[in-house]
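= Tokenised fold =
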Amino acid sequence: MEDADGISSAALIRQAFGGETVLVDYPGLMPALEALEHDEKLKSLYICDLGLSKNNQDQFVEILSSLKKKKVAITYVDHHDIDPEIIKKLQKAKIKIIHDVNECTTVQVYAAFKSKLSDHAAFIAACAAITDYMEDRPKGSRLLQIYDRQFALISATVLTYNIVGHQKDPDYLLYLVEMLSESKYPHEIPNSFEFAQIQVEKLATMIEKVKKSLKKMKNLGYMEIIDAGASGAVNFVLGLSGKDVGVAYKERVDHGIYAVSIRGSKSCSIHLGRLVNSLAQDFGGSGGGHDKACGAVIPKDKIMPFIKALNTKLNQ
């Protein structure tokens, strides 16, 4: 529910197969699956763009295996780094896995179910690839070539700002899924450009806040975010710190945790997703993601020990 790849993959699944959409973030993933485990009407389940961590991967396999025994057809589509042993266990449970770390999730959904999708779905997939910094990958780049690049860039940006700005409005996020599944362009969604402008103005003020509050360690820059999303600020933290890694974190009062966004520069040679997956578990949290873009969920009282440990690991 937090980015365009997740929302867009949900939209294409809805267009191809219908059914109900459940949007979750990482803290909400396992509770949502546990709820589905008791849904007697469930016949098929598609899980998209939700990577696993050492903290939840075994429970994930357990719940999906239980659903499979109840004759639920399950397809898992993702592009995050996954433990090969977990893939083997899912395959053993007869769960269909579509997994490629080199393409964003929506592009994989489009490629797998193209025959059930409209021509417009290619544009939605291209926008998702842009927002996940994967528009240069083989399938993603071919889709982007179909369209005017600037048109795709502004559409992807407007979509992203509407998603980020409505994280506390789940009904609106479901509305976005519905609009995209009906082959609407982002600019055709009422007030989308106006709301994107509001988000741009907020981000502009964020630059000054980062300049004032940014803190640095030897190998990273970090900052707590108060009145915006961590994912929207983390690139400013990375760029303005002059370090190879930027960390932005925001308190989730409802869960007693910090949601952490981490980004690496082009010169960062460490796979941050794998490092954070392992490190977060040591602090009672979970995390993971891509080589230069990942996230974590860390207990509130462990945030600074986690950041200090990350700084140390980056030096090894």
